[in-house]
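#lab-general

N.A. 3:47 PM
ok so I finally got the sequence cleaned up, no stray characters, all 353 residues accounted for. can someone with queue access submit it? mine expired

B.Y. 3:52 PM
send it over

N.A. 3:53 PM
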Amino acid sequence: MPKVSVIVPIYNVAAYLPKCLDSLTGQTLEDIEIILASDGPQDCHDICDAYAVRDARISVIKDYGSYGASVNAALKIAKGEYIGLVESDDWCAPEMFERLYRKAVEIGADVVKAGFYSVVGKKMKKSSVPATVNQVVCVEECPELVRGVPSIWSAVYKRDFLLKNEIFFMEKRLSFIDTPFYLETLFKAERFVFLKDYLYFYNCNNDNQSVKSEAKVLDGVIADEFVYERLKKLKNFSKLKNVFYASVFSRLLWNYGRIAEKYLDEFWGAAQDYVGLWKDDCDDFSFFSPREKEMFDALSKGQSRRNYEYFRKKVKRIKLFPGITLLRAVTEKGKISYYLFKKILIFRRKVKI
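B.Y. 4:20 PM
back already:
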C-alpha cells in the first residue's frame, strides 16, 4: 500500500502540466502513487501518457467528463493510506507530502493541511494560517475555520475517513465544487491539523481557470446548496449553522463582485432562492461582517438587486480605531441607521429624518 495517493484532475492545462508533474515525481516521499485523471484535450492526454511511461508510480484515467467525476473515479481506485489532491496548473514543494504524511501518522489525523502561496505574476502571497497550527482540533472547537479559504489542496486526507463518511465530489461540470468537499471534511473530521509551513503554490496566472469566467453565474450557488443539504443532516450543524451562514455570504459577495453585470440579476434571483431555504434559521450574526449582514438583509427580505445597490451607495464606513468601524446607512425611506462594529454588532440606533 502506498503511503499517499496523489490525484491530479486535468483539463486544458498543457502549458502548465509538466511543471506540476515534475513537482510530484520529485517528492522526497517516494512511496506514493500518482493518478492523473485527464479530461483532455489530446495534448494533455499525451503528456500524461509520456510521464506514465517514465515513472511506474503514475497511472492515467481519461475522459470522465467533469472535474468531480474524474476525482471520484480516481478515489475508487486509489490504494494509498492518505489521499492528496493537486490542481494541474499548480505545483508543490518537494517535501510537501513527506511533511504532511509524517504529521498525519504521528497523530492519527483525519486531515493535515499546510499553508500555500498564491502566485500572481511573479509575486507570491502567503495564505492565512489559523492560530491553531500544530494542534489537533475539530471544527466545534474552532468554528472560525468554517470561514477559511475553501481550498482542498496542500493537504492529505485519510482514505478510510473519506470512505467511511461518504465524502465525494459533485459530478456536474461546475466551478467551485471544491467548496463542498472542503466544508464536508471540516465538519466531519475529528482530528484536523494545520501546519505553519507553506508547501503549495497556487497558480493564479492561468486565464483559462473556470473561476475566472464571468459567465459562470450560478455555479457557486449550486455548489453551496449542495453542501448545505448534506451538512444540515449532521449532529454538529446546529452548533455551527450561523458561522456556516456567514461563510455563505463571504462566497456570495465574492461571486457578486466577479460576475459580469449582465448576469447579476440572474445570480441575485438564485441567491434569494437559496437564502430563502434557511434565512429564518439564522439567529446569530456575530460571525457576519457589515457587508455580509447588508447582503443578508437584502436577500432575506426580497429586496431587488437595484435597491440593494442603491443602499450600498448610501453607506459610509468610518474607521474609528483599528478593528472598529462606524457604518452610516441612509435607506430609501429616509431613515438613517448607525452601526458600530467590532467583529460583532454592539450598537445600533435609528433616527427618522
